[in-house]
Structures are given as structure tokens and as C-alpha cells.
Write a structure and sequence with these properties.
15 helices; Nucleotidyltransferase, domain 5; Sugar kinase; transferase; 428 residues; five-stranded mixed sheet; kinase activity; Arc Repressor Mutant, subunit A; ROK
Length: 428
Amino acid sequence: MLRGSYCDGHNTRLLRLREPDQTPGGALMRAHTEAPHVRLLRLLRDEGPLSRAELADRLELPRPRLLAELDRQVAAENVAEAGIAASRGGRRSTLVELHPRLRFAAIDLGASSVDIEVVNGRLEPVARYAEPADIRNGPKSTLQRVNELLAKARADGAFDRLDAIGIGVPGPVSFRDGVPVSPPIMPGWDRYPVRELLAREHGCPAVVDNDVNIMAVGERHGGVAHSVDDFLFVKVGTGIGCGIHLGGDVYRGVDGCAGDIGHIQVDAHGPVCSCGNTGCLEALFSGGALARDALSAARSGASPALAERLAAAVRSGQSPPITARDVGEGAAEGDVVCIRLIRDGGRRVGSVLATLVSFSNPSMIVIGGGLAQLGHVLLAEIRSVVYRRSLPLATGNLPVVLSELGSRAGVTGAAVLASDLAFEQAGS
């Protein structure tokens, strides 16, 4: 058991994280049921070049079977030799690595942005593109721009061919079918064949998931949750969602909409949400909701910091005139109303998470998304409510932390899912 501690203001909390191989039914059990070629390729992805002897030890495979599998993957150009390994007391072994030609495309579509990375087999970026985008423009124009950026990457020499594509979208997804399903902020995307069209356009398999799920996968692969099998990843941005990571895997639910906490009602008399219901968490605290409340405070003069920013925005013709970032900057300057707006939002998020903690008893909660940049004021309020409202047994060793990957959590997770898909198909 891994033990440590972190300090939260005046409180020091003990942190105990279970190693993956100590979780009943978790990552270790799954690893032993996976096909040998999947385990082999994932190990080379996550660990880098290894000798044949090390691979045989780590995978617990008879050497003849390992050598036969390596020959098959070399022939398929998934694996290549990578020099001589350090001596282990006898004949020096040759290192094996993922083939340098492997390329995966990772796409993170947000409500107002598109981020794309082309990565190699180790998931290291070889090309990056990020630009503003409006998901409400619909799937045809949005995916056309994605294809244009990937064509640019190819023209720039980032890849000759793609082995798989992973994409996250800001709405509910049928993971099985590879299509968004009734996404509240994505008009025109309902049942749009995203996976089919990307696969056909680029001649490779594709996988589609909800944006917060891919962020959870990314954080598990290369972020603060790297050694945690059971955690919640909460995205607080244009919308609010929760990636549920249990037993080393994302839990998506029967139809793929598990974790859609933004549409849990927290105030029966609250504003109408984009989903059509009243008083949803997302309608009360999200990027748009915070900007709405901040604009009201600026116009009324209740917040001097926001009133000043509104006046400057009107003079320059800025649209929208007030954003969530203005609230964060005002809070940093000590504006009481800005601080209150952030704390109110943190209290609402924390109350929903307290219920989830009592229900699922996670090892960690990770806060990400655009509003995570509001920083300690938001995080402290979420922590306070979660620790106060949940049972001590569930929170005594529960860290609530900010994402380490930040804006790269989504593309990292999309790259992991793309590589997993390619590796699974490498045995067919």
C-alpha cells in the first residue's frame, strides 16, 4: 500500500492509494484475461523498449510463445528491434519497441474549441493543433475542419497513415455505436455517425466517447490518478460531467450516459437548463452560468471589479462582455462578489459529489475542465462540502485534487483509447 499525505490549509489528510495489482477484480485481473498481443503492445507503449527476457517475465508467457507473437507483430510493423539491452549476466538480449511508424490521432472536441494531436506509439505528440470552434455549427462543418487539420498534419510529414483515431465530444455518447445521443449543447449531432465517417475518411478504426470519459482515461494514464483504479474525474467547464473510473476501467453504464451529473437537479426553482429541465447543476454553475451571473453583478454595480471590466468590454466591443475568466481575475484581486460566485458554484458541485462519494466510495476525486482554472477558491469549497457532507469512513483518505494534465487530459485519453483499439485489432 502506498502511503503519503497532503496539506489542505490547516488540515493534513492521510492519503492511501491502492496499487493497481492490489485491487480485487481490477487492472491485474483484466490484464490476465486480455489477449497476449494486447498485453505485449500496451506494455511497450507504457514502459518503452524492453528486452525479450523482460517481456517474458512481465507478461508471464513461455518464451516460445512470446517469440512467436513478436515475430507476428514485427511482420505487421507494430513492433521493431531497438538495439542491445544491458547485460543480465549472460548473452545480451535485443531490445524490442513499438514500431516508429505507428501513429494515432487524438481529437478533443469542446463546446468552443478543437484540440488535435497526432502521437506515436508511446503517445508522444508529433503534431499539435488547437483553435476555437463552435460545436453548435453542427457535425459536418466541425468534422470537415478536423479532417482538414489531419490532412495538414499528413502534408507536414507527421504520418504516412493513421493506425486509429480517438475522439471525445461534449455530450452523451453511445460507446457501442460510436454516435452522440441527444446531446443538449450539440444541435444536429444526434445519432450522427461520427465513428463511421472518421474511419472511412482515414482508412483506420475509430473510437468515440464522451469528453469527460476521455479526460478520465488521460488522467489515469499520465496524470495525478496514474496509480489509482477507482476515482472520479469531474469536468467543470461549459458543461459539467463526471468520468467514473472503477476497477481500472471507465464505467459508462448500459447506454453510455453514466456520469452525466450536470443534469442532476440541485434547485427546483432554478433556471431552465439546456436539457429542458429546471435547476440542473449545469444551469447553476458552468462557464455560461457563471458568466451570466457575473454580468448581472457587473450591471447592478454589486461587483466593482466586474463593473470595471464590463465598461472596458463595451468600449472595445468585446463579445461576450463578461466571461468566467473575469470572475477568476476579480477573485484574485479580492472582489467579494467574485469570490462568492465561485464559492457558491463550488458548494453546489461539492453537494453533488458528496452524494457520489457516499454511493461509490472512490479513492480520489480529480477536478478538471476550464473552470478548474479558478483555482484554490473553487477547490477549497468543493473539498469542504465533500468532507462535511460525506461519511468520515469515505473521506478520511480521500484526496480532492486538480488535474495534472489540464487542457491535455482530453487528447491524452483519446490517444490511449485509439491505441487500445489498434492493439486489440492487431491480433485479427
